[in-house]
# Entry
Amino acid sequence: MTGNIVSGYKKLLEKTKNIVALNSATAILHWDMETKMPPRGIKLRSLQLAMLRRIGHQMSTDHQIGLLLEEIMKHPEYGSMDTVQKRNLYLIKKHYDEQTKLPEELVVETSKQEAITIDTWKKAKAAKNFAKFKPELEKLFKLKKKEAEILMEVKETATPYDAMIDIYEPKMTTEATNKIFKELREGLLALLRKCETAPKQPNPSILKRPLATETQRKIGNLLADFIGYDTTSTTSGGRIDETEHPFTTGYYDDVRITTHYYPKMFASSIFSTLHEGGHAIYEQNLKQEWMFQPVGEASSMGIHESQSRFVENIVGRSHEFWTYFLPKLKMLTGNMLYDVELNDFVHAINMVTPSKIRIEADEVTYGLHIIIRFTLERDLFAEKVTIDELPQVWNEKYLEYLAVTVENDSEGMMQDTHWASGYFGYFPAYALGNIYSGQLVAKLDEDIVDWKEQITGGNFRAIKEWMIKNVHSRGNLYNPSDLIKIITGKELSVDPYLSYLNNKYSRLYGF
Amino acid sequence: MTGNIVSGYKKLLEKTKNIVALNSATAILHWDMETKMPPRGIKLRSLQLAMLRRIGHQMSTDHQIGLLLEEIMKHPEYGSMDTVQKRNLYLIKKHYDEQTKLPEELVVETSKQEAITIDTWKKAKAAKNFAKFKPELEKLFKLKKKEAEILMEVKETATPYDAMIDIYEPKMTTEATNKIFKELREGLLALLRKCETAPKQPNPSILKRPLATETQRKIGNLLADFIGYDTTSTTSGGRIDETEHPFTTGYYDDVRITTHYYPKMFASSIFSTLHEGGHAIYEQNLKQEWMFQPVGEASSMGIHESQSRFVENIVGRSHEFWTYFLPKLKMLTGNMLYDVELNDFVHAINMVTPSKIRIEADEVTYGLHIIIRFTLERDLFAEKVTIDELPQVWNEKYLEYLAVTVENDSEGMMQDTHWASGYFGYFPAYALGNIYSGQLVAKLDEDIVDWKEQITGGNFRAIKEWMIKNVHSRGNLYNPSDLIKIITGKELSVDPYLSYLNNKYSRLYGF
# Structure
């Protein structure tokens, strides 16, 4: 390639690097807002975030980027660029095209409204008062709707909601999601019925034995160590803090997770630590040489969830893992679990029971929580339902799908932070992540036949290396559906995940 | 005033607001780097900070600012603008003129080098290895020297070092500092000799009784409450974290301090909490309506230190305060201090003893530590001493002024973070702060005659209100020397501070 195209490409990457660095700095301010910021700081913070969003938008829409892209893509030597370079160019162009269509004022306005809506949501949730939340959510939804309509044009999606999904799960559509969620729903409902009517039922009371936060913290550090997410050494690239809603944030050498410690639900911090730890090791094991390049990011939120839910559930709730870890847990908790048998413990942490709260849901009902949210978002953007009607429709769906009665909106449609944060279109990624994880595990079964025995032996290393090689280190080189196909050789399919669930739960429940 | 000048002024303030918001966001990233960041994050963080510095520099040198300033200042109605508006314009112009003269590459390069130098300093200090620190400090000094030479031209100061002082203490000069530090030094040395030869000597061993970190933390929260620095309520605008070197950072509604807890030096966290708390309440009580305006910032670092050292020493080490607080401390610490008499305690926390470490120094020797640093900085910029020679010259000065022998550079010239952070010219502000605090207290004595009795009664409120009215709420409306003159009616003078010290220590030491 001649100097011309190489230097243009370098210039583009330099501009991208600044955008990525800015975003990673903004992420720290978000993390701080959720974990450390004094309460009175909220107004100043939302102003800072809006300003950084404005700067980010200006950097992303820099006219120079457009000129450089055109120059490179029309260059006679464009064809001889390699896959990574072409993918970078594709991703830079996609981002540039989308951002230039979004007016700066809309972007800044949305950022400001998000901060207000999150703050209002927290207060409204604490007060179980949807009326307080409603006007701010309506304002935010209006802005997000406008964004969706603009992005629909650029992304050439069928509907505005498709454009929202595409933000988190590139190339995924409402239609495809409808189809696969239908299969998922049927599979899950059938399995749920089997579990509910099985003669063998778990005893969850052992999970309610009280455990001090300090001990839970120690357990969390051990679990992080197990998956190779170092949070304590002098060369650590991670840390664990406490928030009501656990999350992961960060980039390469600084990736942070949060969890919550409930003294009377010690399993909650165990599984949220494993879940977020699964996200964290994905971010930490992106290819080092791709840092600050578009290919050096995760492929999608669905692929991210495949990693977190693999670590949390497929590994973290397995008989094999607890064969290894229960003795350690018993030691760490003193006398608390002295009388608990391995099988009873594993059944308890996998108890299938329809519930109201998504983040505490078991693997079988989890997908149903997601499908409800997907349905509502879809209908919201299609104007078949209004923000005002959300609580009622939510409660009806919960009764229909899960046969539970929602008593108040704080345990209903206000339970999650996503809508308050403007993350419309994100929810499908959770269920897609489960589906992807099923496909990945089917392939892992072939490649490392004794991976379960390795876990029994307390060894996560080879499994992690497999994930790094197949998923993490590939970054954003492929769209999620392509990535899955490249790794497994198969198209998106719900079957492996349903068959994993059926195998696991038939053994647990004895049907 | 016509719309023209008003709208131009508004536009200028809007631009300033963005710069201030960016700086306050950057401050959070610095805070995070010192308190929470996983160790491996340092490279990414220094890149983020350099990029924000670049953006900040671009915003500060926006050509539009220059045009607006010219338009307004040449406007026939300029004369009818009020004091606040004129001061804002003066400060905006000063900042703009200075920043436009500093090349962007120098600013960014300096930011990157600062991050590296701080990191190297930490490691070198731990390893007691100046040779490791030296090359990075030399690189940083070279950049700061260049900055000083450029700023000298714009600020029209006599020397490059004067330009550095002016950053932290506007309009203060090397010449004036030489003069007042000479008086200070003589006063302090005379007082030191009296204390050393006095028959009545304190028993500092009571301060070495071990005290758990958790208890020290509780004491810190109580002290913060006493001065009205709320760090615990749901409407709090502050927080206390832990770092080796305590500091304060933040802006209006989000002002954070750090302290350190040494189990065998419990007084250390008490006084660093009071010191930083003094800084914090200054920032928190700037005039709300001036937020994001140049006048809505502290007047200078010297005035800042006058506040922190007033709270730490004049209040926090007074007989009056401990009359009130010692019983509380005794209660909080169980049996630890059961046998300690008030007078003995107050004498112990005011023990005058030449030492090697500035931040643990008493009020009498503290100024000497500063004068040594000032002398070295001054000579460094005048090329009378090199970075290479610093440790040796440092050790000689410590022997000369304080008669102490520095064993290694970690307790010598590497003890402070300032030079590693690029804060050349900052040190004089500490001693000037003491001098200002002396003048302020002389006036406080006139205005609130019973202020000491109020402290004995556990009441800091009226004193704080006096400081808010006279100092905090005036923000950056005046340069420090003007501010002191407006409040006290007097020119800068070392006498009130020396007389405060002589009164206090003659009573303590009985001479």
Notes: The longest strand of chain A covers residues 254-259. Chain A has 20 helices and three strands. Strands of chain A lie at 238-242, 248-251, 254-259.
